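Re: folding output
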Amino acid sequence: MIDRIKKIGSIALITLGLILTGCTLAQGPAPISQVALASEINVFRSPTCGCCGLWIEHMRDAGFQVNDQITEDMAAVKEQYGVPENLTSCHTTVVNGYVVEGHIPAEDVARLLTEKPDIAGIAVPGMPMGSPGMESGDYVEPYTVFAFGKSGETTTFSEHS
């Protein structure tokens, strides 16, 4: 009986320790809200672009802290941060040393910040219908989020449809 009480007490202490330290037995990526809350994103956009404002709302809804930078010279911003010409979109975001170009889902930004790949950034060229900030009912134009390096090489980061 005493051994059983000791065993139950040990299990209770271990469980309490896990709870107090925020640990769980499940492994995997941090939830998007944890990544978002720890990340301030700097969004550079034109004052006349409405879809950029909708993308900012998407990111805020996901928990990101957004620093909204209005500028008249987006070409200079894209050049400053090394966005390849073939990957440009309407807004450019900088977060934790990465460039995030265009209408990228918050989940992809969270994945970028969690995995920390050795790339310059990720981009969705153009403004695909159905991407965050470009919603049009239930229609989603299939699109690719590209990863790009400092010298401009690209690979597929994720695909959406």
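--- second protein (sequence, then structure) ---
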Amino acid sequence: MTTTDLDRSTVETAYARWAPIYDAVCGPVMVKGRRAAAKAARAVGGRILEVGVGTGLSFDDYDTTTEITGVDLCAPMLEKARAKMATGRYPWVKAVHQMDAHRMTFADQSFDCVVAQFVITLVASPEQVLSECHRVVKPGGRIILVNHLYSERGVAAAVERWAAQKTRGLGLRPEFPFARLQAWAESTREAVLVERRKVAPFGIYTLVCFERTQKAA
């Protein structure tokens, strides 16, 4: 199916509204996907960039083997993240920045791993954000995504198509297909799909990992 991507103003407005209740509402719903992504990132270790860090829900999922930098477009969400940092419970979280993931200000090859949890389906240009993640990750590093991806067939796909128009104003997009991620990887030099799997127990979310390969001679 073909649908338009969400625009920046829709996402910013929606998540500013979500900020006061995001942890309570979305925390329990997304916990399995969030922990799966963080576990994959911890296996890489080192400097990790969290794209769409939001309120900092994932801070608990990392440890002192990592050094976390977060970016998000939504200022009210970042206020929540900074309040968590101020408690002193998360010394591995070094900084969070208000930044557009389409145009990040980090130098090339700055991070060992880039994580985007429940983000890539919501941005204005998923392919541009993926390319920015690819730019800032080091060769041999991972880009780790976790999201609900479009079921593509059957009753679930029909429900997702129906829900797509109803939920756009909430900053949600249930009908985003894996094929777009795959097409980006195939069109991008120095990127290879290394993992794609459903997250237990219900398989609602899919974990997708790309590796930035070494630059060709």
